[in-house]
């Protein structure tokens, strides 16, 4: 056996790698998210909603997932065992934790309970393009209100939120359907009852492809099946022609006012279908009375929400402008949020009916949409003024620290150079890379004279591109001024204001 060399004995460096399905967020993304959340929160608060916060972890059974393996309940969620052998999971949405919170604090909560929450949720699913394991949602919910006026209000609040974010009418629509009507249609075509659950799911999946494949593609999926361009075959639901016609009539309704009576006739005699149609009629009446016509809030039977806990009205916020996808194709941006009525979710803990309705915005997806529209980044963030370090003795450092604190206390972003390099040129290079608008410079001579130099790095950069000779260089010194130390803050404020005016003029 050969002895190990020194190189072989050397420990391997730990590899820095980001877990799949997760992202690091930049300063710009964080600021854009904050800007967006402030605007959403203002709308929610205006509607009388108050914030509440639940933890990232919940006991797994409280999340309501149907877990296939009791020994390892991590299907779709990230789970671990507590020290008392109970399974806990990272929340996969913000609604199930709210249901637990309401049930646990039911006697102290004033009903109806109107609340909003923003936070990260986690999905233990295979990541892919645009599909992440951690993402942010922003929810609003009303618990304890049985009437569909609460659902209508959710839709109006979402329309107001879209407009508060700068999305103009015509670029968005809030689409509304009702699970009771959907169940009524399923029952009317012979797919009611627990024994037909799998067949119903296949039909719902086909309906959900309407935007992607169109009516004829969905007809194939409702029938024998559909072959795609690559030759792959998707088995269909196996419905008859008559059944398919009824489903396509339902999801193809464009003008609800004209089709409501025919829809009511289709679901007549079913357990919940007629009730669902009446609820849609009420929602439509309420939103129209409040001034929200079909260009903003539209009854659209093609809306299918995936989660099983919805029991009545369901809604989706869809952006209707075109974007270019990964394949270079022009496509409608699509959904940025959705929700609906979930009257059974809180009841799981209570043993009594507790009505609830809510809406969830996908923050990351909505942020992407707003960037496409140029609606984010309006809140300007100016890089810090950099105070250069010319001398490193304690007395000099004290002066530099006093400068930076004076600027900060005046509300101006500022930092003192913290690097180790003594070369003044390197400090200016750092300030330039940082995007600093100004540099504060004071050497021994300036300090003795009670002066401080302020270098306009923005103007200096502009002028440097025009300099061709020494005379021009001397004129460019206007980008650097010398002022008494007592006038530092006032002069910095004036120079920053002048830079802001220049940016506004150019913009």
UniProtKB/TrEMBL annotation:
Binding-site positions, L-histidine: 93-95, 123, 137, 141, 305, 309-310
Q: Which InterPro entries match?
A: aa-tRNA-synth_II (IPR006195), aa-tRNA-synth_II/BPL/LPL (IPR045864), Anticodon-bd (IPR004154), Anticodon-bd_dom_sf (IPR036621), His-tRNA-ligase (IPR015807), HisRS-like_core (IPR041715), HisRS/HisZ (IPR004516), HisRS_anticodon (IPR033656)
Does the record's keyword annotation contain Zinc?
A: no
Q: What EC designation does it have?
A: 6.1.1.21
Give the top-level enzyme category: ligase
Q: Which residues form a coiled coil?
A: none
Q: Which domain of life is it from?
A: Bacteria
Please describe the quaternary structure of this protein. Answer: Homodimer.
| HAMAP family in alphabetical order | His_tRNA_synth (MF_00127)
- Provide the family line: Belongs to the class-II aminoacyl-tRNA synthetase family.
Q: What is this protein called?
A: Histidine--tRNA ligase
Its source organism is: Ensifer oleiphilus
The top of its lineage is: Bacteria, Pseudomonadati, Pseudomonadota, Alphaproteobacteria, Hyphomicrobiales
